[in-house]
C-alpha cells in the first residue's frame, strides 16, 4: 500500500497491491534517466503481472529514476540487506 502521512510517502509491500512499471524520461539537459514507478492497485498475488491493458497509462505517483547503474546497484544492495535480515529472523513475513 502507498501511504502519504506527515510529509512522508511510505510503500508497504507484501499484499500484491503495488504495481511497478518501467519508466524512462529525459531531463532539461537531454540526459536519459531510467526508472521504476509504483502505483496502488487491488491486492493480489505478490509478483503478478496484470493484463497489459490494466497497467497501461497508469499514473505512477511514486517514482525512482536512475542516471547510472551504480545507483541501481546501491538500491539493490540495500534491498539485499533487508532480505538477509528477514531470513535471519526466521522467515518471509514480519
| Tally of individual helices | 2
Q: Shape from CA axes?
A: globular
Helical residues, percent = 25-40%
State the order of secondary-structure elements, H for helix, E for strand: EEEEHEH
What is the number of beta strands?
A: 5
Low-confidence stretches: none
Mean pLDDT across the residues is 86
Main sheet record: 3 strands, antiparallel
Strand order, main sheet: write it out: 3-4-5
Radius of gyration: 15 Å
Distance N terminus to C terminus?
16 Å
SS-derived structural category: alpha+beta
Question: Main attributes?
Answer:
94 residues; 26% helix; alpha+beta; globular; two-stranded antiparallel sheet; three-stranded antiparallel beta sheet; 33% strand
Describe the protein.
- With 94 residues, the protein is α+β, with helices and mostly antiparallel strands.
- It is built from two helices and five strands, in the order ββββαβα.
- Helices cover 26% and strands 33% of the residues.
- The strands form two sheets. It has a three-stranded antiparallel beta sheet with strand order 3-4-5, covered by helices on one side.
- It starts with a strand and ends in a 6-residue tail after the last helix.
Amino acid at each position: 500500500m502507498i501511504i502519504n502521512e506527515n510529509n512522508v510517502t511510505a510503500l508497504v509491500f507484501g499484499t500484491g497491491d503495488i504495481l511497478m512499471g518501467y519508466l524512462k524520461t529525459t531531463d532539461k539537459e537531454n540526459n536519459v534517466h531510467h526508472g521504476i514507478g509504483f502505483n496502488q492497485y487491488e491486492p493480489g498475488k505478490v509478483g503478478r503481472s496484470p493484463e497489459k491493458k490494466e497497467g497501461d497509462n497508469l499514473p505512477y505517483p511514486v517514482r525512482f529514476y536512475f542516471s547510472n547503474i551504480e545507483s541501481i546497484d546501491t538500491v539493490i544492495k540495500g534491498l539485499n540487506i533487508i532480505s538477509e535480515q528477514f531470513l535471519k529472523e526466521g522467515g518471509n513475513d514480519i
